[in-house]
Amino acid sequence: MQVHSELGSGFLEAVYQDALEIEFRKREIPFAREEHIPIYYSGQKIKSHYIADFICNDTTIVELKALTCISPVEISQVLNYLKATKKPKALILNFGGRSLQIKRLLGQQQPQSNNPTSPIFSNPPKIP
Q: In the chain, where are the structural domains located?
């Protein structure tokens, strides 16, 4: 919220990444920036990989966007990050609109059921 309050919309995604990195450091939030996520096919690591903007606390993928709105394309991208990393949750932070848009995604639920289910989508409450 602080980054959007100070910068507003209209900057490139890289500007928001730099600013958010400063905020993470100020708030002592553990993070890795532009973390390479390997992809496996038939148990073998392939040459292609994803790059997550941030992974915080080793549990949460944080993906930044500077678009007019988050589309199913961006959601699919982050769902693939969750699948590849087996991380439990992700946030898409979209700085492109007048107000900050936040989309929270939860990874597939593990061992509780042998029946694979699709990831759970949810939105955090709106912050005034």
A: 2-109
Instruction: Pick the closest to residue 119 from 73, 71, 87 (CA basis).
Output: 87
Q: Strands 89-94 and 101-106, how do they pair?
A: antiparallel
Chain segment 69-90, per-residue pLDDT in tens: 999 999 999 999 999 999 999 9
Q: What is 2-109's CATH number, 3.40.1260.10, 3.90.320.10, 2.130.10.10, 3.40.50.720? A: 3.90.320.10
Q: For residue 28, what are the CA distances in angstroms to 21, 25, 31, 32, 43?
A: 10, 5, 9, 12, 36
What are the residues whose beta carbons fall under 8 Å from the beta carbon of 128, sequence distance 6 or more? none
Cβ proximity of 56 and 62 under 8 Å:
yes
pLDDT digits (tens, 9 = 90+) for 108-126: 754 433 333 334 334 443 4
Which SS3 state, helix, strand or coil, does residue 83 take?
helix
